[in-house]
């Protein structure tokens, strides 16, 4: 086994263009991690910070209980791109320069629920609740990208979110109700400004 040390840069490589810190937004809050663990997963990082809505279910990206939305500024298109991701599979370092939104970041019963959360509640789309945060975030991610998504599009893009007790009829009813209410106008400008601030010269200060 060959051990490689990075104490000294290989010849010909300018390391001044690189950094060893992580810069992301989590639910609108800028987070600066000076020395991130390269082996840490996004899910573990979030849960350690108190965002426990995302759950560890299968640990293989198959159940969707860990779903969060990751937003990234796409300079080529001049817009924000949103993706629902399995936080149990995504390395924390892959979220560098991104805005991460968990279920806690879109609303709660005390301060006001997001329309998607409200529809899930009103139409009894949750029973034990273990999978509910992931399902809510999957819906949220779909509607951010496709505010006028069809029912077929919703069904196809939620096939990675499993529910073992409620049944999918009520969940899909909630999705259709949220869709009819145009529940997810995309916060493009707010996320765009947040992501631009991450790439600014002063982004390292929190």
Structure overview:
With 206 residues, the chain is α+β, with helices and mostly antiparallel strands. 29% of the residues lie in helices and 14% in strands. It has helices spanning 42-48, 115-122, 132-145, 151-157, 168-180, 188-198, and strands at residues 22-26, 29-33, 67-74, 79-86, 99-101. A five-stranded mixed beta sheet has the order 2-1-5-3-4. The protein is elongated. The chain starts with 21 loop residues before the first strand and ends in an 8-residue tail after the last helix.
What would you call the structural class? alpha+beta
Helical amount: 25-40%
Our estimate of the beta-strand percent is: 5-15%
**Order of H and E elements:** EEHEEEHHHHH
Which regions are unreliable across 5 or more consecutive residues at pLDDT < 50?
Answer: 200-206
Instruction: Give the radius of gyration.
Output: 19 Å
- Total strands: 5
Q: Report how far apart the termini are.
A: 40 Å
Placed side by side, the strands forming the largest sheet appear as 2-1-5-3-4
Mean pLDDT: 84
Number of helices: 6
Give the biggest beta sheet: 5 strands, mixed
Shape: elongated
Provide the descriptors you would attach to this structure in a database record:
206 residues, 5-stranded mixed beta sheet, 6 helices, disordered C terminus
